[in-house]
Task: inverse folding
């Protein structure tokens, strides 16, 4: 059996630069990952089993990014069938790359079982979604193109992070559709935290129009002591804050609304 973490993805900054003729968007983003996430387990057998606190959100899905990743791996390298368990801890449709991270972890696990190196998996990851290559890499990186062109950069490993989701699923396609189409400039250069602070998430305004509670989450996070950066991740609705200390993070966690999903974690 091979087990792989499917860590939540954060966009410390996300600059949308242009709409492309192929329907995607040209963007620049700072990818980072946290300890919290789903878990993929692959062994001999057949079928997908979903467990964990958010398993119900995927009930009845006959096809998802995990099964597609396994099918495309088999097409490229052979092997299978496999029994796959997805232990689902991350909320779905929440801007932290849950499905993409699950697909990437599936590819890594199958690669370990079949003796296929990581580099050989990136072409498959690219066909599965714009965030899947970043999740396959699993390291702090600058993403360009539609997010699939990656350059590893120095991260902030160990930085305390609080993830907060208000329990609202937001459609990525709808958020991008509502982007106003204004290019507000590139991501800068320099130390990661400084660059992130100087940056923005261009999808925040359309996400807040769809789910106004995103604004409430961000305001509450930003008001906490010890916050270094508070921002929405991806197309939402999950927001996050980086904190100067574990104590500040944990105090802030207690100030969030009881009905929200909250995860105290750290950058990797």
Result:
């Amino acid at each position: 059996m091979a087990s792989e973490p499917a860590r939540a993805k954060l966009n410390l900054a996300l600059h949308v630069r242009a709409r492309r003729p192929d329907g995607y968007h040209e963007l620049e983003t700072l990818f980072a990952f946290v300890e919290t996430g789903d878990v993929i387990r692959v062994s001999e057998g057949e079928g997908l089993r979903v467990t964990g606190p958010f398993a119900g959100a995927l009930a009845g899905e006959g096809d998802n990014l995990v099964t597609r990743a396994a099918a495309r791996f088999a097409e490229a390298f052979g092997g299978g069938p496999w029994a796959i368990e997805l232990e689902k801890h991350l909320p779905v449709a929440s801007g932290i790359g849950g499905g993409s991270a699950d697909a990437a972890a599936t590819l890594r696990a199958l690669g370990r079982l079949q003796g296929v190196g990581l580099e050989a998996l990136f072409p498959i990851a690219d066909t599965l979604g714009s965030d899947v290559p970043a999740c396959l890499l699993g390291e702090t990186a600058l993403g360009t193109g539609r997010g699939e062109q990656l350059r590893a950069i120095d991260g902030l490993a160990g930085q305390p992070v609080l993830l907060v989701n208000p329990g609202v699923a937001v459609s990525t396609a709808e958020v991008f559709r509502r982007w106003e189409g204004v290019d507000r400039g590139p991501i800068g250069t320099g130390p990661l935290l400084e660059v992130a602070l100087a940056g923005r998430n261009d999808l925040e305004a359309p996400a807040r129009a769809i789910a106004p509670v995103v604004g409430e989450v961000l305001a509450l996070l930003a008001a906490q002591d010890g916050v270094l950066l508070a921002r929405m991740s991806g197309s939402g609705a999950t927001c996050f804050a980086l904190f100067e200390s574990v104590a500040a993070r944990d105090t802030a966690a207690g100030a969030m609304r009881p009905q929200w999903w909250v995860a105290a974690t750290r950058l990797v």
